[in-house]
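Deviation from plan, reported transparently: alpha-D-glucopyranose complex.
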Amino acid sequence: MRIAMVAPEAVPYAKTGGLADVVGALQRGMNIKGHDCSMFLPCYERIQNNHDIKQILSGLRVNVGDRTYYYNVFSLDGAYFIANDFFFNRSGLYGDSRGDFPDNAERFAFFCKAVLQTQSTLGIVPEIYHVHDWQTGLLPFYLDQDSSYGHDTRSVLTIHNAGYQGVFPPSAMTSIGASKEHFRIDSLEFNGNISLLKAGIVYSDSVTTVSPTYAREITETSLGYGLEGLLSAKGVKGILNGIDYDLWDPSTDTSIHINYDVGKRSKGKSACKKHLCKILDMNDPALPVIGVIGRFSWQKGYDIIAGSLTKIISMGFNVVILGSGDLEIERSLRDIAVKFPGRVSVNIGFNDALARNIYAGSDLFLMPSRYEPCGLAQMIAMSYGSIPVVRHTGGLADTIKDHRPSRSSGTGFIFRKDDSISLLRCLGRALKAYNDRTVWQRLTKNSMMKRFTWDYAIDQYIDVYSSENRVSMN
Ligand code: GLC
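Because the crystal trials were delayed, the predicted structure below was used instead.
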């Protein structure tokens, strides 16, 4: 099939989160399977600076509302970059230290329209536009409004996080080029504002999200953040993300202390753990180490971690944290680290090599997310034999099987409530298992052998692309 993947970020070009990994892997996987899948991204400053992209079109013009924008198109390896310096030659993707860019509606409206315009100019009509998250939600809208962009072309929206909806004041209607008649509840209007994610849901042919449980949660509960009714009427298919096991393999990873596979996991992990403790000044490698990596936010439950940390240490765990985000959470984590030198290590920022050393050197991997559309870190942790301790939500519920003393198939530990007591109780169960060598060996083996491959996910997307049953919202 001829597919155009349209996203605000993708590896290896621009990344702020898991979305980028998923879009990059999807495009690669589609092409490996013999589909003709191109990718469209905004040409951010970091892409111009770090990649050898070639200009293929210049001086193109697109109208959005009553504005005319000029742009150029660059390309590299099947990816196309829409370049307009005014909108995209900035160091941040969506904002800077002052917050979100105030012209995000215009920026991404322009991007969506320019993608459609570029395809027309190139004379390419894809069978499918596969768009991702609110930033690309207007593409299905423009496609619906102007059939010259592809009469039979369908669009599929994947929601990676329904908590981010691209909500703008009604005045943005003009700058995105939507006529007044679309300020309606069955079109772009959303609680007196407009929502670009909603535009994508209403005007795409199908909506998917990144795990079956999250698909249920955003149609049935408040995790739809006000869109649950619409999503449930439209129907959402949950397709679990995969990870690329060539990139996340402890037997070949050049960043970790020594390589190991499932057969040599005991020796390998204990050497990697000693190394981790050494580089982070942790004082007793005999204690079980909990790894934590990610964005410090309420969504990811970092406030629960901060509130439980002192008790976690008194239970006998060491804790290694890597990430950044909410400044208050950052401060409280740091304060605790100062109180417990050698027991808690808090590392602010992102550092790929350190992340890999944490996956390899930790015994347990903690993700107490309040919601988690899919989550990639738990899958990576499993591949490195670090046992996930997670809340029962979204993709975490779909990827981990809770350990029970009575069954041998567990791969991690699951708790239900988003509070400290439940987290600590769950860690108590994990500690008991950790102290039983046979049980722990089985858990690490089960985890390391579990596979979440892209192959299966891609077949499911192709199914969605091919399905004829467009749900009409009118
Ligand atoms: C978002 C979600 C995360 C998911 C990722 C890729 O970042 O928060 O759960 O794994 O998108 O789909």
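Residues 104-122 form the longest helix (19 residues). We consider this an acceptable substitute for the interim report.
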